[in-house]
Amino acid sequence: CALKGGFSDVFAQRIVEGESGLDANRTIIFSTFSGWYCGWFQHFVYNLAYTRLYGRGSDFGTVAKKIASDHFGHVPFICLPTYYLWQESLLVP
Fold first, then answer.
1. 29 and 17 Cβ atoms separated by less than 8 Å
2. Is residue 18 over pLDDT 90?
3. Cβ-contact 31, 4 below 8 angstroms
4. In degrees to the nearest 10, what's the CA dihedral of 44, 45, 46, 47?
5. Which of 12, 14, 38, 83 pairs with 73 at a CA distance of 20 to 30 A?
6. Angle formed at CA 80 by CA 50 and CA 31, multiple of 5 degrees
7. Residue 40, Cα to own-chain centre: how many angstroms?
8. Which residues fall within 8 angstroms of residue 69, CB to CB, at 6 or more apart?
9. CA distance linking residue 7 with residue 44, whole number of Å
10. Cβ contacts of residue 72 below 8 Å, gap of 6+?
11. Can you tell me the distance from the alpha carbon of 65 to that of 53, in angstroms, rounded to the nearest whole number?
12. In the predicted model, what is the mean pLDDT of the chain?
């Protein structure tokens, strides 16, 4: 996940933003966030916590509960605040 985050940031800097140089500090920050949060923490949320809360089933009810928890709980109250705190605390010059 860290490599994917790093490559994604390099792509964003070079292709999307059209920068000629590379902000290595920014790339390291996004790589570490991707490795820690998207790798370790989301593994815990999606594979362990949701399984304990809702079971291993893939029926409509179980999937709906997992999606609702993600959409109305995890993402707005944990994922996005963590990302913005990480970004603001490390990218501020």
1. no
2. yes
3. no
4. 30
5. 12
6. 95
7. 10
8. 50, 53, 54
9. 24
10. none
11. 9
12. 93
